[in-house]
Amino acid sequence: MPYVEVKDFRINYEVTCDVEGSTLLLVPGFGEQIGNVEYPIEQCQVFANHRFRVVRMENRDSGYSIPTVSEEQIKPYDLKDLASDVIAVINDLGVKSVHLIGASMGGFIARWAAICYPEKIQTLTVVMSGSGAGMQEDGPQMGQNGAERIGGYIERRSREEHIVWNLDVWRWLWGDEYPFPEAWIKERLGYAFDRAYSPEGNGRLLQALLNTPGLWDAQKTISCPTLVMHGGEDSAFPQEHGEAIAKRIPGAELWLDPKMGHIMHQEQWEEMASRVSKLAKLTEQ
Predict the structure, then answer these.
(1) Are 107 and 127 in contact, with CB atoms under 8 Å apart?
(2) What is the distance between the alpha carbons of residues 235 and 262, in angstroms, rounded to a whole number?
(3) What is the DSSP track for 123-147?
């Protein structure tokens, strides 16, 4: 897989579907890596069927996006730094700009990329992400249950313990309306554990979430066509988060699926790709 070096890290990415078309860059959520639960190859192919060249990346401290210095030398970072990693990938791809999708924590990163580097982002899709309101701001906050579950990712467990624990987290995230593919998720979790298990990296990512200024006001400056995709069954960021994001970003379109949990369900992939393609066409007019 190709990678690009930034300060203290190498950022891993993959051209998953190399078709002729506009580049669609997928930014994952907290601790997710290529081949885990988010953005499976089958979903990428649906995007490719809509004439997108699909690129998946791994945030720093996740998967193969590993430090290039010793643990003691890693300097504190925040989500704005992860947004600059997105831009480093775009530049390494040799394209001027991309259509950007960010899921969960990736939705925070993608918004910062659109704010700080607007010339690099043609369209933005924010999926199942938090409102961006700081603790002292009048906007939806993540609940205690969600915060505790994220905190659980920094604990080191055996392979078997991790899969059992993480499967329970995904069941909680999934919601009750769409079928829960337990066997497939267990297989993905085992694959990801064997590929790159790093609770220490998750700890630094958690600190980055806490270190980053809120998006509550900053996202008002996003100017590219934007789609906000959110679910009524989202247990991590309930639907008022999606509604708040869509209200804060000028001209943003809100797609609220009452059956969607904190995941892009297979049943949504075709409509999602169609909506992102429609959004992309706005930049061609």
Answers:
(1) yes
(2) 7
(3) EEEEES------TTSSS----HHHH
Categorize the per-residue pLDDT at 79 as very low, low, confident or very high, splitting at 50, 70 and 90: very high
Residue 205 vs residues 140, 172, 249: alpha-carbon distances, Å: 21, 21, 25
Angle of the 144-151 helix axis to the 199-211 helix axis, nearest 10: 140
Q: What is the DSSP letter of 34?
A: T
Place of tokens 């970003």: 249
pLDDT digits (tens, 9 = 90+) for 186-237: 999 999 999 999 999 999 999 999 989 889 999 999 999 999 999 999 999 9
* Greatest alpha-carbon span in the chain: 53
Q: Which residue, 90, 131, 105, is CA-closest to 214?
A: 131
- Give the global pTM: 0.98
